[in-house]
Amino acid sequence: MSQRILVVDDDDALRxxxxxxxxxxxxxxxxxxxxxxxxxxxxxxxxxxxxLDIMLPGQSGIEVCxxxxxVSGVPIIMLxxxxxxxxxxxxxEAGADDYVVKPHNGAELLARIKAxxxxxxxEGGSIQIGILSLDPRSFEVKRGxxxxxxxxxxxxxxHTLATKPQQVFSREMLLEQVWGYQYKADTRLVNxxxxxxxxxxEIDPENPKIVMTVRGHGYRVGTETA
Amino acid sequence: xxxxxKSLTAKAVLATxxxxxxxxxxxxxxxxxxxxxxxxxxxxxQVLSETERAIGSVQNTVAAAALTxxxxxxxxxxxVVPSLQITGASANRQVALLRxxxxxxxxxxxxxxxxxxxxxxxxEALREQVRANPDVLSYTPITLKRGDVSFPGVTVGAPITxxxxxxxxxxxxxxLSPEQEALAxxxxxxxxxxxxxxxIIGGVxxxxxxxxxxxxxxxxxAAELLAEGQLDERLAERGSDxxxxxxxxxxxxxGNLQQQIQKLDSLSxxxxxxxxxxxxxxRTPLTTIKLAGEVLFGNRERLxxxxxxxxxxxxxxxxxxxxxxxxxxxxxxxxxxxxxxxLELRDLNAVVGAAIASIEPLALSMDTPxxxxxxxxxxxxxxxxxxxxxxxxxxxxxxxxxxxxxxIRVEVSQNQQAVAIxxxxxxxxxxxxxxxxxxxxxxxxxxxxxxxxxGTGLGLAIAREDAILHRGWxxxxxxxxxxxxFRLTLPKRAEVVIASSxxxxxxxxxxx
Lengths: 226, 512
Hints:
The complex is a heterodimer of chains A (226) and B (512).
Chain A: E1 4-8, H1 12-24, E2 28-32, H2 35-45, E3 49-53, H3 61-71, E4 76-80, H4 85-93, E5 98-101, H5 106-117, E6 127-129, E7 132-135, E8 140-143, E9 146-148, H6 152-163, H7 171-179, H8 188-201, E10 211-214, E11 218-221
Parallel strand pairs in A: 1-2, 1-3, 3-4, 4-5
Antiparallel strand pairs in A: 6-7, 7-8, 8-9, 10-11
Helix pairs in contact in A: 2-3, 6-7
Chain B: H1 2-6, H2 8-65, H3 70-83, E1 92-99, H4 124-132, E2 138-146, E3 149-162, E4 166-175, H5 177-227, H6 242-298, H7 305-335, E5 344-347, H8 348-365, E6 370-373, E7 380-383, H9 385-402, E8 408-414, E9 418-425, H10 432-436, H11 459-469, E10 473-479, E11 483-491
Parallel strand pairs in B: 6-8
Antiparallel strand pairs in B: 1-4, 2-3, 3-4, 5-7, 8-9, 9-11, 10-11
C-alpha cells in the first residue's frame, strides 16, 4: 500500500503539480486548499505525511501545524515562499519537522519526504537514559511507568543521541543522521527540536538532565542516573 | 577653554571689550596728557607773574631805601627776601638770593636763603642762563624731595642789582605738588570711570549679543537634533525681526524635511511590502513551472527530438530565471534596507575552504587550478558566513570565467583589526573604464563574450552590498591581459572601523 501525503496549498496549479510529482514517485496525494479544510482533510485522509504551505487564507499554516500536532505526531514539512527567519522558526516551534523553501525542485522535495518517511532502523533492544527508557520496536518512551508521546522525529533524535551515550553530536551530525541532510542545512532545525524534545522528556526543561548541551560543540545524553 | 572658543557670545563680548579697552586707554592717555600739560602751563604763567612781582617789589624796596651802610642793607635784605617765602598746604614757595660769582665787593654780605631750601633745586645751568639773559625770567622744572617723596616743582630766577652789594640772582622755587595732586585726582577719576565704562560696555555687549546669538544657538541645537533624526524639533517664532524670520525659515525647512523623510519612509515601507509580495507571488508559480519543467525534462527521451530539445532549453532557462529572481529579490532587500547580517565568530579559513569546494567542479571543468595561501592559525572574525561564502563563490566563479585557464590564487591574511581575502586571476583583465562600472547592476565587461558560467549580472553588486553590510571593503585591481584581483577586507569585530587591509592590492604575486 502506497503512503498517503496531504498537500495543503492555496495555489491550485502548484497543488496539482506537486500531486503529479508525488504520484510519479509512487505516493498517494490528498489535497486541501486552505487552513480550515486542511484539518478536515487530515482527519479524512489520515496521511502519512503533511506538506503544508505557511501562507494560507483563512487559517495560517502555523495554526494548522499546531492543530495537527495536538492530535498526531505525523511528519509535517512546511513549504515556505521565503526563507525568512521568523516564519521558519515559528513553523518549527509549532511542530513542523522540516521545511522546504520555494521554488524547490522535485528531487529536493522528494528527498525531504523520503527522509521523513524512512522507518527507524530499530536494531537492539530498549535503551535506558537515566530514568527514561526507549523501546525502538514500539517507539515508546517511558519515564518510570508514565508513557511520553514523542513524534517519530523526536524519537529518532533522542534515540540517535542515546545509542552513543559517550559521544557529543554536533548540530551538523544530527542534521545528517536524524534529518537526512547530506550537506549543510539550517542548524535552527536542531535547536528548535531539542527545545521541543526537552519540554517533553525533561522534568525541568530549563535545567536539562537528559539532553545536555555541550557548549560550542553540540548535544549528548545525560549520563547521570539521578 | 574650548567651550569659550566655541561660544559666539563669548567671542563677541571679548572682541568688544578688547576694542573698547584699546580706545579707552588711548583716550585716557590723551586726556591725561593734555590735562597735565595745561595744568603745568597755567601754573607756569602764574609762577612767572608772581616772580615778576616779587622781583619788582625787591628791586623797588631796595631802590627806595637809599641805604648807605651795609648793616642797614643787610637788615633790609634780610627782611624783604624771606617775606617772599610762602609756606602752606595749598602753595609752597621758597626763596634764595644768591650772589653772582666774580665780584669782589662786600664779602661779608649774607645772602638770605629759605631755611629748608635744598640748593640742588637751583641748578648751575639755570644760574648761567639767568646771568646770560638778564632781561627775562629764566625757569626750569625740577624735582623736589620731601623725605622720600619726590614731587615736581619749578625754579624761576632773575638777576637783581643791589646798590652797595653788586649783582645778585633772586630765585624762587615753587612747589607744584598741589597741581600734581589735582592732576592725580583727575587721572584717578578717569581710571575709575574707564573701569566702570569697560564693565558697562562688557555687560551691554553681552546682553546685546545674547539677544542676537541665543536664537542662532537655539537654531544650531535644533538643527543638530534634527540631524540626529528628531524630526519634530522646532524653534519658537516670536516677533517679526530677522531672528523670527530665521526661526520661521528653519521651521519651514524642518517641516519640509520631515515631510520628505516620511514620504521616503512610506515609499521604503511600500517597497519592502512590494518585495515581499513579489517574492511570494512569483515564487509560487515559479515552483509550479519548475516542477512541470522537471517532469518534461525527466521524460525527454520519450518526446520527439524538437520537443525534447525544447524541454532541455526550458529547463536551463527556468534555472537561470530562478537565479535571477533570487538575486533581484536580494538586491531589492538591500535597497529597502531590510537586510540584517547574522554575525557570528567564524574561522575565515573554513569559509574560504567551503567556497572553494563549491566552485571546484566548475574550476575542474574549465581546467583551472586554484592555488591557496591560508595562514596556519585560525583567522577569526564576526561574519555572516552564508553571505561571505556566497560572496567568495561569486568572486571565484568570475575568476574562473575570466581567468583563461591560468591558475587562480586565493590568499587569506589578518592583522590586529581586520581580515582580508584576495582572489586573483591572470586572465583577460579589465580596462580602467571597465573597472569603473564593475559593480554596476547588470553590467558586463564584454557583452559579446560567450558566457560559460551563467551569472545574473547582479553578483558583484550584491557582493559589494554584502561587504558594506559587514562594514568592510571590496576592492578591485585589474589590468588588461594581466588579470584581476578582488580583495575583501572585513573588520574582526563588527564595531571596529578598519583602517588598513592585511593584504596588498595588487597582490604580491603580481609584478607592478
